[in-house]
Amino acid sequence: MIAIEEAQQIVLSRTRFMPMEDVPLLQAAGRVIAENVHAPWDIPMTDNSAMDGYAFSSTTSVREQWVVAGFIPAGSEQTTLVAPGEAVKIMTGAPIPPGCDTVAPIEEVEQTTNGIRLVAKVTSGAHIRRRGEDVRANDLVVASGSVLRPQEIGLMVSLGRTEVKVYRKVRVAILATGDELLDAGSIPVSGRIINSNSYSLAAQVLEVGGEPILIGVAADSGEATREKILEGLHADILITTGGVSVGDRDFVKESIQALSGELLFWKVNMKPGKPVAFAILEEKPVFALPGNPVAAMVAFEMFVRPAMLKMMGHTRIFRPVVRANLLEEMKNGGGRPHLVRMQVTLKHGVYMATSTGNQSSANLTSLTQCNGLMKLDANTTITSGSSAEITLLDRGFEMGETAYGTS
Ligand code: AMP
Ligand code: MG
User: Fold this and answer.
1) Count of structural domains within the chain
2) Considering the entire predicted model, what is its pTM?
3) Is the CB of residue 272 below 6 angstroms from any atom belonging to ligand 1?
């Protein structure tokens, strides 16, 4: 039995980057870019007005008064020289015409009988956005390896791009095992349960940015298990759930070995999620996760998620860890580290946490209440009121329910 961290290292050392693909920019949102993007031109391309107002030469009128001799709306330009003593009305974004060096906003001028006069002090050069002040031609604007947010998408569009190179999404085949399993939507009869793991795992895959492929259920036999495993190898990763322990009906591990898979570990020193195997089969990573619903999800969280993120080019592949004040005593009298499901709250900038109650690995409700995991070492007690590190699984609880800037 190996430690969680060692198992993670083994997984990461055996996962490879996905191939790259060119996709339309909107499909690249949230993904990792696999090329350096340089600017082909300056932004702005020309000096232009930052305001709706009047453009003129600040050196040509001692009386701060100008004759209005033209109009330049956004989308047009004036290439003829604006004469000394003349101003042109100009809209935001329109290029500054030759002969002008300053813009006075509409609010800071007054109409006169034949033109305009300043009513406020406007400094020479004011209200002009300079060519290249945002981006200069040849600048590196988005570096390979960055996660693309809306602002990077917009910037690349403004530089003429419609497609970008990213790492392909990981396709993850999900195989459930067990004669007791019924399809989603069934009404269970005694002794049977609905295959919920395929769905919770698929939703985890989606959350990581991968593409889940549900390949159904393998009956509890070696032959059926091997057949379905081979089907799953068409994907980039195969996840199985259940049938990986030491029961009479656990065929997953032996099937992987029968198919000449390289078994890298089986059993990790953690609770929940001990019966978990990792193998390479026909060059594909295979994660054999436990059957218990909580154990399956926690094992996904610990091993599959970081692997998928790494494969898709992410460098930040682990969840954030915060220090929280414990609102109850936490005790692990057993010999394995516990990954305790925690409910974390934030009050006045301080994190506080309690366990989600019954920690049975069969009870999915211990996860529906949960937004954090705390690793509680074997034979350890942490007293109520002391602080501990908690890995945050989602940060929705930090979002405000009141308007920005209020509390
Ligand atoms: P196993 O490791 O196959 O013995 O499964 C352990 C427990 O998890 C058993 O109670 C199974 O019924 C349950 N289980 C296994 N697979 C699933 C699944 N796909 N969805 C929900 N529960 C499952
Ligand atoms: Mg089973």
Assistant:
1) 4
2) 0.95
3) no
